[in-house]
Amino acid sequence: MDESYRNLTDFIRRTSVPETFVDILLCAVPIWLAVMIGLLIGWSWRPRWTGLVYLGFRSKLRFLWTAPPGFGARRVWLAFTALSAFSVCRTLWSRLGSGAKKSDIEEEIPPSGDAVSRGSDKKTEEEKDVVREKDLEHLLAAGNDKMEWQSMMDKSTPNMSYQAWRHEPQTGPVVYRSRTVFEDATPDIVRDFFWDDEFRPKWDPMLAYFKTLEEDPQTGITIVHWIKKFPFFCSDREYIIGRRIWESGKKYYAVTKGVPYPTLPKRDKPRRVELYFSSWIIKAVESRKGDGQMSACEVSLVHYEDMGIPKDVAKLGVRHGMWGAVKKLNSGLRAYQSARKPGVALSRSAQMAGITTKVNMDLLETSRVEEEEEKGQATEKARRQKEQFNVDWKWIAVGGVALACGLHSSAIGKALMVGAGQRLARR
């Protein structure tokens, strides 16, 4: 009883009166709009003889008005109103149930302070490293200029500039690439800002829930559970994200991607996004003030995900909401800078962001280039072998047709006889 009362009070606190009225309007208005349009069209296109029928049955219409349920305008009105009320009650019940499910999840998942440490697990190195160097190489390969990129946006504010592109592969989701330069910001602050889940709800209204599932204090790998709010016409989305940061020189390579997590099974709602990749390169650059100081921070992002939404609809939503999201991101970074005062303790997420894996990017780039060259040479060799042993069947077919026509017309036989006669005459 206490648990039901607690769920009910939590639901009442979350649900506002305007949202309930919006649900009622969304359920009732389309039905009555369709009814009104149908009556208007039907009445305007009625035949002339319907007037005579109406006069003849005018007395019987009173009977229809007082007929049993299912007849008459009042019964139709009550029926549609009941359907609308049923739909609203079903929506409220589903929200109450989702709140109870959320509380159950919170009880099953340990709090972020008690996240499972992966340093002492008896797992193989490959199983522990859910985010590996292959993912870092994928970040470097996905952001190159060899791909065909379409420019989407080029805007700036007094303390930030932003450029965005997109690439549409033949299969899979759209790939987005962006370059953001924050003035008066250091790479360390930007790195912690992107990792700090405790601070993220203050500037990201879509993040409704987060928990740290696992963390490795040796490599800095963390697995987090996110639930993002979406508009009313689309269910919320769930993410299981593995993330890790590499450091080379004064650059940070942050990789986040969707990872499987068997201990947290999928549900109908929210819908889980399994294909997810959002990674960026953070480095210090020269300020646009022209003073020669490396006081600005550049963030190069590569992002794609399969949210289960039609590609055209997703592209439209991204295009219209991109600039607003970027401005919220900039405002959140400035607020984070103000909150990071000396002596203020860092959150657990920000502490994990400071645990990076050192890597020599020159060697990694060289090995990646050599691997691509070897793949290119192998492909070229296979193509040449195919061309060497490949038979041009087009000319064989043409020759076969010509031979058949020649034999049919005896032209080839005559030519052979003439040639043989000339040789005998020479002897």
From TrEMBL:
Domain (START): residue spans on this chain: 120-338
Ranges that cross the membrane: 21-45
UniProt-recorded Gene Ontology molecular function terms: lipid binding
Protein keywords: Coiled coil, Membrane, Transmembrane, Transmembrane helix
Chain segments annotated as coiled-coil in the UniProt record: 361-388
Annotated region described as Disordered, given as residue ranges: 104-130
InterPro entries (UniProt xref): START-like_dom_sf (IPR023393), START_lipid-bd_dom (IPR002913), START_lipid_transfer (IPR051213)
Residue ranges, compositional bias (Basic and acidic residues): 119-130
Any one cellular-component term (Gene Ontology): cytoplasm
A Pfam match: START
Protein name per Swiss-Prot or TrEMBL: START domain-containing protein
UniProt source species: Brassica carinata (Ethiopian mustard)
Phylogenetic lineage: Eukaryota, Viridiplantae, Streptophyta, Embryophyta, Tracheophyta
